[in-house]
């Protein structure tokens, strides 16, 4: 294995959509933050009253899930050794690349600010040579092909049962494997995501939180690759 | 091993202290939330201008660290199997017990609301038979003795180098072991915490984030105890 990709898929991260930008819950929140409703992140904990009329609303408005997944992934020894790459695929189909050295904001409000900048401007920071996060113009399928990702596993409670250790061994047997974790609270993966997957596995007959699946698989990858033996 | 304790030590969680309750950064934040300055959690991301005059200010005002550690611990398979107990020891020396079945609020603002209730009222919820979180009157040393904790390891980058796997094996060789992770951003553990520790270990010659250390040790404990083999 040269490097392993974590794909946070159908991530519940998006700007407030046009249909609800005039809802009082959105307008109040936007004006308090001194931003336009089109420039703020959809957040169920704040915009819940407005979200009921949105399609698939149970699957949306949870940037906190991506936040904790990124904190876990970026703090890992696997990432520090340069073996991990993270891609966010959002519920809108956008694909976001993150520099592995990026320090993810610890504070949730700072994190949402960064994600808003990313979704409005297309990159963070908006100018300059250094790019920490970038929205790519491509689709998920193209990114997987262009990067030479040769094996894609998706984690879902309906998949074939496997232990974290065995999964890590299976991934590590490839040059550039990827594991896909859903970064949304409820519902199923999109057709687009299923379309790029080679194999569906499950870590147990129970719903597991995304951030736990992320750190759990990274831990076993660390053991299999031997980052602690150095 | 019957059960293992995670002790989140010197946790940077406290109510705004009296010295800075009249600072504009605190007053604005409190009035916006409709609370008294004595009832809100000290948070560096909000109260930074007020905190400069506090003793040990670099070590304080970071409830986000405990939040992510708790999310990781409570979502783990080890916890779901009933093998993990979590205790928070705060920078003020308070000891907090959390029911293992507690669903930690995913949203940071909700989490701070719960911690404020806990520190003001002493328990969550404030009334009724069910207690999810409780502030114990005792000191850390007493809790360790009363619960029959028979081996306490502290993680610190200055300790004896050990791999997560070897550490998990060392812990699991005891009936009721505990591992201590610092839930503060900078500085050293308090004398009180060092006073209860049998052994100091390090997972590597680098600063590791608390939430990563928590999930990393839990993962190896899961492997050693064999929770995935069922």
From TrEMBL, chains A, B:
HAMAP family: NEP1
Cited CDD domains: Nep1-like
Xref: InterPro entries: Alpha/beta_knot_MTases, Rbsml_bgen_MeTrfase_EMG1/NEP1, Ribosome_NEP1_arc, tRNA_m1G_MTases_N
Record EC number: 2.1.1.-
Organism expressing this protein natively: Infirmifilum lucidum
Catalytic activity annotation: a pseudouridine in rRNA + S-adenosyl-L-methionine = an N(1)-methylpseudouridine in rRNA + S-adenosyl-L-homocysteine + H(+)
SUPFAM superfamilies the record matches: alpha/beta knot
Gene (name only): nep1
Function: Methyltransferase involved in ribosomal biogenesis. Specifically catalyzes the N1-methylation of the pseudouridine corresponding to position 914 in M.jannaschii 16S rRNA.
Complex formation: Homodimer.
Family of the protein in this entry: Belongs to the class IV-like SAM-binding methyltransferase superfamily. RNA methyltransferase NEP1 family.
Residues holding S-adenosyl-L-methionine: 182, 187, 203-208
Protein name: Ribosomal RNA small subunit methyltransferase Nep1
Top-rank taxon: Archaea
